[in-house]
Amino acid sequence: MMHSKTMSAEPRPDATEPETEVAGPEVEGVAETAVEGAQASDPAGDAALAGAVERIAALEAENGKLKDQALRALAETENIRRRSEREREDTAKYAISGFAKSLLDAADNLRRAIDAVPAEAVDADPALKTLVDGVAATERQLLAAFERHGVTRIEPVGEAFDPNFHQAMFELPGTGKPAGTIVQVVQPGYVLQGRLLRPAMVGVARGE
Fold first, then answer.
1. How confident is the prediction for the chain on average, in pLDDT?
2. 190, 183, 188, 192: which is closest to 201 by C-alpha?
3. 59-88: string of b/e by CB count within 10 Å (b at 16+)?
4. What's the CA gap between 104 and 200, in Å, rounded?
5. What is the pLDDT of residues 63-84, one digit of tens each?
6. Per-residue pLDDT tens for 86-140?
7. What sign for the dihedral angle of Cα 25, 26, 30, 36?
8. Quick one: what percent of the chain has pLDDT higher than 90?
């Protein structure tokens, strides 16, 4: 009977492990050159970067300009809206100015009629008194209607002369009042919501 003999593979005495190769001076030089090349500036890349920076700056400037224009347009729109609103309010407030002016003469005539009748004649004649009372009541009603619509009579006796609301007709000496003080009203003035409809015609004190 034959016995097979298993042969185990054993390393040969002369077999050696592979040694790690050490980079020589040539390899190190190539690596350094590669690093230096990577770190070196690329003219084309620098130009592209500079162009991008300039483009960004231009876009930012344009954006700021457009933003400023938008803010100006918004402010102008707001000013137009406010101006239109004021004009609308003024139109509503002063729409009756023409109609009110046409009634001022009627108010003046009512006052002249009342002032033209002597007080003693009114006391002596009941019928005349009734007539004068009726005219006075009509004047009061007209002035009340004026007041409801913002029309106010100006009778500035004792006030300082104001050229914005008064028209001086003459000067009176020896009144004992400071110069420019209104001492007589020839014709009352009227204002509508603070705006002059007709100046008051007045006499003012002359300075001594």
1. 81
2. 188
3. eeeeeeeeeeeeeeeeeeeeeeeeeeeeee
4. 12
5. 888 999 899 999 999 999 998 8
6. 888 878 778 888 889 999 999 999 999 999 999 999 999 999 999 999 999 999 9
7. positive
8. 49
DSSP 8-state assignment for residue 119: H
Question: To the nearest 10°, the Cα dihedral for 141, 147, 151, 155?
Answer: 80
pTM: 0.59
**Angle (nearest 5°) at CA 140 between 157 and 122:** 85
Q: How far apart are CA 207 and CA 175, in angstroms?
A: 9
Tokens describing residue 89: 């309010």
Q: Which residue has the tokens 């930012």?
A: 60
Tokens of 153: 């009579």
Is residue 178 a contact partner of residue 152, using CB atoms and an 8 Å limit? no
- pLDDT of amino acid 204: 95
Which letter, b or e, does each residue of 183-206 get, where b requires 16 or more Cβ atoms within 10 Å of its Cβ? bebebbbbbbeeeebbbbbbbbbb
**For residue 169, what pLDDT is reported?**
95
Question: What was the pLDDT predicted at 19?
Answer: 47
* 8 A C-beta contact, residue 205 and residue 177: yes
Contact 187, 201 (CB under 8 A): yes
